[in-house]
Amino acid sequence: PAKAQKGPFQPKFEDYQKVYDAVAKKLQDEDDYDDGSYGPVLLRLAWHASGTYDAQTNTGGSNGATMRFAPEGDHGANAGLKAARDFLTPIKTQFPWITYSDLWILAGVCAIQEMQGPPIPYRPGRTDRDVSFCTPDGRLPDASKDHNHIRAIFGRMGFDDREMVALSGAHALGRCHTDRSGYDGPWTFSPTVLTNDYFKLLVEERWGWKKWNGPKQFEDSKTRTLMMLPTDMVLVKDKGFRAHVERYAKDNEVFFREFKEAVVKLFELGVPFEKTSGVEERWVFKSSFE
Ligand code: DDH
Asked: What is the CATH T-level fold of the domain 13-139+264-275, as seen in this structure?
């Protein structure tokens, strides 16, 4: 007779693909949110989970999912991300073996791929940690600041100029909400499809200050429906950043390649894979439209 399986359930690629499929289906089903998709806010959750990483102290990052707890969940930068966490709660109930921290990053990968971005190689191995691992406030970027701030924040994570610009291309997706960040509006005309339009618009459009009572932001002079944050505009004003903006504006393939590499690095910051899953190979999930 076949031996009964011993020890804890060891999920494999196929099991994680099932989680991917469940997130992708829920994205399709729940299309009455924002511009028609939870994709952008799911990506923002994965980014804010990862972007707390500090290379010097090896603290923060996507390992731990500490944004579940009040101090970190209540940080100003994380306003609105409860919508993404709540979206994923039923998925966690359906697949109780996956950690929140692996799930949030898997959902970010799913969001990028389902919004027609490049395949993002993924590996599991994050463990959930308790409230004592919450990071201090102020580790995520402040949109009102300048080039020094961007380099300080992303430099702390271990990124160079090229990677900072590539990652910023995520702003092709989603929008700002007055009840979350205080800013208002989308960056592109197709906020649920990943393209290099963010870079094209940065170099091709004329941008002026928006006249309103809210925080200082830019609007396009032609349609006045699109927006740029002060930190977005820095990318065309600063020479070191601008060279990469121009490269990505010219060639979507180059953007996709360098965005993918930078996102894989971002999503793995501070995760001790060798000690947890021991998984070294990364997997590419099949998208729903393949
Ligand atoms: Fe961002 N972002 N982001 N961002 N971001 C906002 C929305 C979204 C900054 C500020 C804001 C990245 C970098 C930066 C996404 C992805 C990424 C909002 C609006 C602000 C403000 C929030 C709201 O009101 O709901 C700043 C500053 C930076 C920087 O200095 C570089 C990066 C690196 C990413 C990434 O994913 C790799 C996405 C997606 C959104 C849209 C969210 C939504 O709900 O829609």
From this structure: Peroxidase; domain 1 (1.10.520)
